[in-house]
């Protein structure tokens, strides 16, 4: 099957620009990048659908002249979902602006906490063995503790 | 056999409820399960004596060569007796051990019964994989038992330690078992022993299995978990140390010894580590002040001893091993149970405080004397019988040719013998320390107060002590009973027999030496203590374990800290770099020399493409939000144009509608956001992003050219046209795909839309899902405005704009809206019904209706929207989802499949003969969901934000007027 160079170049250019944009911090720029990448990817579906042809509506043209309908159905789903994604990301950008005064994507707080632990050469919060006592010491300690409690 | 194992697991979940209901005495009832097992095993005594083997096999996973195969020969029979017999006694003991109102007993009871079941399953398993399953089950249950009191740190620590150490060994063992299965072509222990595989792989496999056994049996360097496990309640310790868990390792070595004792490395590993462990455990036991901990180190020592004996692999040693196994089970259980009684009656286990107990509890003391004497190896008890036989068998190994058939050189035999004698001396010494510590009247310690001991409490240890004495005299009977196991080994230099009297000889001399030196060590305990202090070092395996656990945690923190930067961009960069590095490299390597490309299908494609590329460039360069959005919209419309040129009108229509809706939604939100993007300097990082973007773009182009050229098969959709018409009932194949062939996709898609809309609503409304619809007529007329009298017949174009300030109204827009709205709605309904045969469908129809509503909102404000659609958006979407689901499920009622379509033709007279395809109802659901989605977006981004803006404006106006609202 031969590849349509125009479609491929246009699509990959959109995807490249989209990559540049989604690596940004501003959520609305990320969203613009995502939309652009989405358009590019949807075009790639047309490439994989093969050569251009007549609309896949039976009766309007001979079956052999029609383009592949399956990629169209897949893209149709993607296009509508993209609307939902756009709306949701916009709502997030708006909320972020309401709370922080900007729509920048923040770094994860938990990850930052782990980075701090790493910087101070510390163990994780779940590590119970930081105390260097052995179980034997603790067991002996406890004999006294229990006994102390009784007195 | 399987029924008995299952009975344990069946009772286990019931036990907690029973304990809560009846109380701690219910342990006596729970003991019925192991008691039944014990009874069953006792009934088989004579059959085992005659060398019979019981097997049971249920095919489970034949493809993995994994069956539920159980087998009971002599060794297994003995283990069943120990596991169930001591299980019964310990459970009976539990009925008195725990406080009446201890809330944790309920949980404990269930775990304990399950643990006993797992242990029983372990010793009965013939399939080594099944054995592994039970093996790990005992690990898990012992974890829960040791961590009996999760509120105590020591308890948690000890439990985790036991879990990690034994699981570590267990995993090694699993690898060993799988390897053994691969080499020997079976996982059955019986078949492997009948024809033991050899070679390097088999050797490695056996050594891996040994690693599991050694970790479970707490041999050096894994020994430290066992004393730590003292955090468990005493009955658990008794059961763990005497009958189960640690005995699992001994059992495994005893099981494999007949076939694999000659494997290179077997003897070196087990004998070396065993003797070392025996000495280390004994030496450590001598410095303990907690009598329970003293016994625990004693167990470590004894386990080393037992493994040494079992691993030798001569008939005499095997017999001695079985004797010692029984003896150890009996005396160790006795002593632990005695410790439990002492602990419960006096409240302490510290031997520096216990004094004068021998007189206060004579029965317990007498029981302990029997147990201790057996542990030390004094006649006429079973411990003595076992130890004498061990000495005898080791002498044979050292003196007889070829190590009495074991292949061990003479010097090894002597070395092991010396080690064992030395270890026995230590055993004698710590036994005396234990008895002295627990019961003696110490001159400078005041006699300790103790509660009286209930008869039921002391019952279990007394029974065990009696058995120790009785079995001491039944050596001959036991020897014959064990024949089935012994005959797996070649006959040795001397006929071995368990007996109290082996005649005058070296073994007896050794025993005498052991007793003498042991007593001497005890008497000179001051010197020993000084020596302990001198040799004590901070080096221990436990500290090493702790350090490595800490190290692992530190490494994990460092790796997580390095890789989990918390920045989305960093993760994306990483993913994209991998995309370039792996598939990208593969693409470059495999790129064909002759590629088949065409420039375009029509030149128009190139024209649209150039416009899109220019729009993309300006989008990236744009510093203003609105401009970026408009330009990305251009790429969107361009995409629609390319769809159309490609022969996809459905797609083009939907794309245009979606693009338009997105644009409006964007503008509605952008009025709230700053006009420009946050400024960022052009740093090196930006250059890197540009390079990455370019590289990804190039890579994608390469992938596409490659994959398009690589395609040879015909598209699956070539076969669609005919069934689309025949079964789907539609001329538009895309529509048939969406509503019939791939209808599940559509079902999932509308669910996603509902979820997204709900997410948006929750992010904007924050506290409510209801948008609060208000009609214009419900708004009170402002009192400050004089109402104009209207004559009937004089009407406005739209009702809503009256609520807007005059400067925000556009009369032309209102008139156009008034004229267009109904046309758009009619068009959308046409698209909905025509979509199955022509361009259109539920999505497009929903979007057109949505656009119509959007126009009403833009022309007349939020009240106009409520006038146009006085329904809640959530309700609309819910209805849509319901209709779609009902349409999907309806065929089931007629015996069809989910989402199957049917075609109905009926006659409507002059109105024609409609041809209805049932998938249309599904499409109506889709339509309603899409309309609901857009209505929701208008209510949130439109109406709600309007209100927020209005409120802020009022607040600013109030502030500038000088009044501050408080």
Explain what this protein looks like in three dimensions.
The complex is a heterodimer of chains A (151) and B (966). By secondary structure, chain A is an all-alpha fold. Chain A has a domain at 1-53 and 69-106: Helix Hairpins (Orthogonal Bundle), CATH 1.10.287. In chain A, 66% of the residues lie in helices and 1% in strands. Chain A has helices at residues 5-22, 27-48, 69-100, 109-119, 135-150; one strand spanning 3-4. In chain A, helix 1 runs antiparallel to helix 2 and helix 2 packs antiparallel against helix 3. The relative contact order of chain A is 0.09. The model of chain A is unreliable at 138-151 (pLDDT under 50). In chain B, the strands form two sheets. Chain B has a two-stranded antiparallel sheet. In chain B, strands 4-5 form a two-stranded antiparallel sheet. In chain B, a hairpin with a 4-residue loop joins strand 1 and strand 2. In chain B, helix 19 packs parallel to helix 22 (455-472) and helix 38 packs antiparallel against helix 39 (919-960). The interface between A and B is large, with 117 and 146 residues. Strand 1 of chain A pairs parallel with strand 3 (597-598) of chain B, so a sheet runs across the interface.
Largest sheet: number of strands, sense, barrel closure of chain A: none
For the record, the CATH class of the domain at 1-53 and 69-106 in chain A is Mainly Alpha
**First-last Cα distance of chain B:** 80 Å
N-end to C-end Cα span of chain A: 90 Å
* Overall geometry of chain B: elongated
Helical fraction of chain B: 55-70%
Specify Rg of chain B, calculated over alpha carbons. Answer: 42 Å
Q: What features would you highlight for this structure?
A:
heterodimer; A: 151 residues; mainly alpha; Helix Hairpins; 5 helices; disordered C terminus; B: 966 residues; two-stranded antiparallel sheet; 39 helices; 5 strands; 2% strand
Concise account of the structure shown:
Chain A has 151 residues and is mostly helical.
